[in-house]
Amino acid sequence: MNESEIQQYAMQIATQQVLAELSYPFGEDIHVFKVMNKIFLLTSTAQGQIFVNLKVQPEQSEILRELYPSIKMGYHMNKKHWISIYAGEKIDAQLIEDLVKTSYQLVTEQLTKKQKQALAIHSTI
């Protein structure tokens, strides 16, 4: 997948998540997806390259960076909990989908009980 395909597909998967909202708190060129006001995906361009930032478990971050040369520590994010995905040979749609859904799940697991209840209600609608 090229960088535009990665970005578009990640955004497509993000929009399919329950109560996911697209916002632009850092400027119109930085797409931010949130659930219950918590970021789970951020995508933009840096030094002429499109990237997608996603939340991951710290152990998963290390493994992914070893397996995929185009996955780096999160650009302008907590390097322990976030990764940046750039275009690369091994990056495919299934990987992007899995990583977007995992990021969403990690964020929703940290929601308050009340937020989780609201999310559960919307999940069944």
TrEMBL record:
Keywords: DNA-binding. One of its GO terms (molecular function) is DNA binding. Gene3D superfamilies: 3.90.1150.30. The keyword Ubl conjugation does not apply. It comes from the Bacteria. This is MmcQ/YjbR family DNA-binding protein. The lineage of its organism: Bacteria, Pseudomonadati, Pseudomonadota, Gammaproteobacteria, Moraxellales.
